[in-house]
User: Fold RidA family protein from Kineosporia mesophila.
Amino acid sequence: MTGRIEARLIELGYVLPQVAAPVAAYVPAVLDGDRVYVSGQLPMVDGALPLTGRVGSGGGEGLISPAEANGLARVCALNALAAVRSVIGDLDQIRRIVKVVGFVASEPGFTGQPLVINGASEFLGEVFGPVGQHARSAVGVVALPLGAPVEVEMVLAINS
Assistant:
């Protein structure tokens, strides 16, 4: 039986993937009381990164555009929901998306990190409505694991 949130994902054209395998010594998500802490999720699709490199607006060779990175941030958020489901079983138990932290591998001088991470925030709003509104940080970094352009982590409150 598909719950309300998974049905909403399907309605929006998304399929909840399998949980991405950790790339180091951690678990994808931890349930502690009424909170779920999701480890940083990369934009993995079928076990691979669709794009690697840094985000920039100058349009140089090997640069990922802010629009492409915005789409990858959506994938990160979708992967985060898969990690949440792995520890709570039913996404309908989510009471609130509390906090989203997004990291953007950025070219020097790039300051559009908030617009990139909007991909994750807007996705969560589309899926959850007001429950998806959250506090957020968007941080530019030199590099991310495996050469990923974007990484997203989240904290969620669930019904206890």
Observations:
- The CA atoms of residues 5 and 92 lie 6 Å apart.
- The chain has three helices and five strands.
- The chain has a mean pLDDT of 95.
- The beta strands are 29-32, 35-41, 94-105, 135-141, 150-158.
